[in-house]
Structures are given as C-alpha cells and as structure tokens.
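Incident log, support desk, overnight shift.

02:14 A customer reports that sequence design results differ from what the structure should imply. Their input is reproduced verbatim below. On-call engineer (initials T.W.) acknowledged and began investigating.
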C-alpha cells in the first residue's frame, strides 16, 4: 500500500486539528523533520492556539508578521553586520533570513504576538459567528399536534 505523508499539511495549519488528526490516524504519517526556525503549535484552550517559534538572535525590529486571506506569514531578516570590529571564530547561532507560512482555518484570527527570551509567541483565536454556532431546537409534545389534528378532522 502506498504511504502518504500528510505531515507538511498538518504542521502548517492551525484550526484544522480534528480533520488532520483523523487523516493521520487513517494513514499513519511519519514524524516530521525539524526545520529552521523550529516552532511549536499548541492548543491553549477550547478556541485558542499559540504558535511559538525559536528566533534566537532576532529582535522585534527584525521580524514581521502578516495575516492575509487565511495565511499567516512570519519573516525574519537581520541587517548586514559590519565585520570590521570583530572576527567571528565559530557561528553556532543561526542568523539567516527565514520565511514561514501557516494556513489558518476559517474564523481563526491573530490576537497578538510577543517576543521574550528568544521565543516569538503568536496568539490565535477561533471566533465562529453566532449564526454558524450550533443551537438547541426545542421539541414540541406530540399530544398537542394530535389534539389539533382531531379537532380539525371533526
């Protein structure tokens, strides 16, 4: 049987948890490979999510976040550094430019972002309009409709 790898779709979407969990269970997708910058997507509440990206070495001025048409784009670019002051002997902290895109489900909006201790936190919330939320329907008693039918027949 042919194996389909759905992990790229799963890790770049927010708010489609149930759909991709079912697909992952049906297909049994492999573990995802880490990419730059590493990130986590977590569900923090019933309708809230948080994307956390490890962006060590980047300041808030080096990072831009844009949300457009169900796509969240995070870009990071450090300005060129003049190397005349010091010579770098070993580079262990990556400072290359990056661009990461996340597909957002309908009604998922970015509520805010913060940068602390080298971690960029992007908070998301899913706000479904009242007209689309499930609602309870009252059930009438059968005795009332049967009495009306008898009265009409007589």
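02:41 Re-run completed on a clean worker. Output:
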């Amino acid at each position: 049987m042919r194996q389909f790898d759905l992990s790229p779709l799963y890790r770049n979407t927010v708010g489609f948890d149930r759909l991709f969990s079912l697909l992952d269970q049906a297909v049994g997708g492999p573990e995802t490979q880490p990419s730059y910058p590493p990130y986590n997507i977590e569900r923090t509440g019933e309708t809230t999510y948080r994307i956390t990206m490890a962006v060590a070495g980047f300041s808030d001025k080096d990072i831009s976040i844009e949300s457009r048409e169900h796509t969240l784009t995070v870009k990071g670019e450090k300005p060129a550094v003049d190397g005349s002051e010091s010579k770098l002997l070993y580079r262990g902290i990556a400072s290359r430019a990056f661009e990461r895109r996340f597909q957002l489900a309908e009604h998922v909006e970015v509520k805010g972002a913060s940068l602390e201790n080298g971690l960029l936190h992007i908070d998301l919330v899913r706000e479904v309009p009242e007209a689309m939320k499930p609602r309870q329907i009252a059930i009438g008693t059968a005795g009332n409709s049967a009495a009306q039918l008898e009265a009409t027949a007589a």
